[in-house]
Here is the input.
Amino acid sequence: MAPFRVPPWIPALFLAPALAGLLVFRLGPILIALVGGFTGSTLRGETVFVGMRNYADLAADPSFWSSVRVTLLFNLIINPFQICCAMGLALLVLRPTRGVALFRAAYLLPMTVSIALTSVIWTILLEPSVGPVNGMLKALGLQPQPFFRSEGQSLVTLILVCTWKGAGYWMIFLLAGLLAIPRELHEAAAIDGAGAWQRFLRVTLPLMRRPLAFVLVADTAINFLLFAPAYIITHGGPAGSTALLMFEAYQAAFALLNHGRSLAISTVILVIIGVIAVLELRLFRAAHERTG
Amino acid sequence: MAKIARRGLGRLSLAAGAAAALGGTPARAQAPTTLKVIWMGWPDNQVNPLMEWFEKRNPSIKLAVEKIPFNQIFQTIEVRLQARNADPDIFICDSPLTASYGARGHLMDLTPHLDASRFAKSALAAATHEGKIASAPFGSSMQVMFYNKAMFREAGVAPPPADVAQRWTWEKTLEAARKLTDAAKGQWGYAFEQSERPYQLLPLGQSLGGVALSQDGFKASGFIDGPAFVEAYTWMQRLYTDWKVSPQGQFDPNIPVEMFGNGKVAMLVAGTFSVATLQQRFPSLDFGIAPMPYFEKGKPVTPTGAWHFAINPRTRNQSQTLTFLRDFMTEELHSLWFKLRPYPPVLKSIWDAEKATFDTDMWRIVRHELDNTAQPRPATPGFREYEDLVRVALRDIQTGADVKAALSGAAQRIDREMQKYR
Amino acid sequence: MIASPARRIVLGALRYAAMAAVAAVLLLPIWWTFVSAIRPGGEIFRYAADVGWRTLVPERLTLEHFRTMLASDMPRAISNSIVVSVVTVVFGTMVNAAAGFAFAVFEFPLKRTLFAFVLLTFMMPFESIVIPLYTLVRTLEWTNTYAALIVPDLANGLVVFLFRQFFLGIPREIYEAARVDGASWWTIFLRLTMPLSGPTIATAALMQFIHQWDAFFWPLVAASTPELVVVQVAIARNITLEQANWGGLFASASTAILLAMIPFLLLQRYFIRTVTASPDK
Here is the structure.
């Protein structure tokens, strides 16, 4: 939709409360944090300007690069995976037949469990020696798995647990988008002879462009900022296999008491998310231009 | 157009009014002083009685107590202290963090206000930073070995004696554990309560003569990754990977006690406080207590540490905080605290006053350990860094990593972080 | 291609089977939580490793955990969290929707820059801004007040983004027609755009509600006196080193989960197909 040109004070009034809030409570502190990446502090709390030293230290630290790899790998898998799951769920519960409302509510239930609580519960469930999931596997005659306690499985298990919680959440947004597509368009396409998959590709997806853009960018940001399970369940391990950048930033601040380092890592996270978000938005805008 | 402008202004004034209404009201001169206290999130019935006792004694002082959950308390305190203002007035301080807070200027010197001679030796050592008493000891800790009498009877194994003179070695413990482990029934012979924490596991290496950190508190390489610790943790790793007598990958410190209570673990080295948990939640459990084992060719070493509290040097209520300090160091309060949560007392007089209470197997062991074998964690301003990095190494060791590599990696990172304190 | 009745039935059955399978995976952990809340404390872990029907169906039931919970700070925490969440949703939705509307409908200088700033606000880790934020809140003298819990979270970049995306989908013709009729932009926003955005508003409301309901670290830092305790902090206080009140943990967790479902159920009716107004209506 092409926007309207109006005297600037009109959008100003619409924007004022939100922008004021964001400026004071988010952008201000973010600016301070970004500057903080270039500082260190003395033991007595005085801030000293150290230039690029924090970043140089990070660049020379193999565990930082390992963390970057783990984070990128994690996000490369989890973002498309979660969105596909969410889209699948949304399509599944789209048609309001009997009892579907119950399923919709059921799928939302994991969303009501906070991420910290999710971590606590799943730690117990997936305990290799005493957890019910392995108990069930044993009862079924299958091999119990180490899950979070093995280098090979921990990241995948993390992805699955986060998807357990997030699929229902993103489903809501996609459902809202799907419901905004007029039924007439689907019927017209069906009459024209398009099969279900065709209709999905040609009718649904293009019209879901904006909700999908939102879900992708928002999910990307949230997953890059994910921290609680890596802290509570695995503490970055085993052997750094779940040492997400956000976990490293938190550890730098609260375990290593090195705030300059923590803020430098946070800035790196911000830049990565920003770059990927811009690419994602471009991707969806380009698609729009292609279909006209 | 005018409609929008009015709405906009209306929303602004609404927000301002709300802010004023919701914000703090100015203090009146005659109101009692309020001390802001950050306390550990122990259950309400263990915290409130202490605070109420104090407020009754001192009607002109009110306590605003924040009870922070254990998993967040250090981080929350960090954020508050980083802001370097008058809040909080008083905060809980895990004993080894005294040096860390002290080095960064967060502790008021308490030396003139405390009578050092009243305190147990180990508690005082942990409270001292640069020759001054910087935190107030509040309750100590000690570990013992719990064992399930029924499981021992069933397996036909003689249980460990409570007499410290006949203390079991780790080797003997392993022997018994192997007979008591039954994978098919989900029974484990042995478990550590805090299987990834330096608090519980440093004594293993120290038992073989290892020193956890250099004397000056700044160098870990050559110490935590020295031969004693490598040997000790290699042995520990085999509990999980080779002999399989302990449940691998079980890091939550609250679950082994549950398993012990449910008869799934035969021997458990845990804090003395677990007695209360076991008695309340598993009243039918028949368990005994023995001293913590040691390595045959080494010496017995047990962990200890204490909860202290500290006063913010930037407080605006100096005299009130000192009143709090004085009252919280009385025998009356320490007695009350002991009844609520039976940590080993830090005041020597409590041990003498309550002889009957302490005349049990467990307390006799505890007294002996505190006087003879207890070793607090290393004193260093970089304690937080040290503890977390060693913890990660211990987790990885339990799940099968190369012991020397894990410890050396941790040591190198610790040394790097210690730079800022030199 | 219209499906034959037989094919329809099979597809329908498959659909329900799939929905049920997914529901099982998503619900079993939560069921386990509920079940642990009503069984005696000592039994919670007894059937964890030895999986049997008893793992999921308790033999002995008890309400003691809930009784203890009601006597603890949980009721206070629930009422605090409800107040904070509802106020945030009510005011936050208006504030963020207005901003989203501006970004979708108007062209103005610095629009792209401002929108970039809006996106920026949810891309920075919260832990990195918590100290300056705390200092700010302290300077405003809002520590240990509802203001600290509510005001910083009213403006929400993610919610602005959400509204902007969905508002972009409303056809220009609708606005043109309204402008021709002489409506002010505020009227258009309130009377035209918002009513057409039922699902979006519901979604935004749920987002903000959950954000506040799940809040944990910020309340600890900024407002953790007993009068202001929030739900997640009250739940977390069941776990201490050397003493975990598992029954209390699961009871309060279950309560928090069930209460959080209420807004979802209330807002379910907005998740219906909206009739898109076509130009000739």
The two ends of chain A are 12 Å apart (CA to CA). The mean pLDDT of chain A is 90.
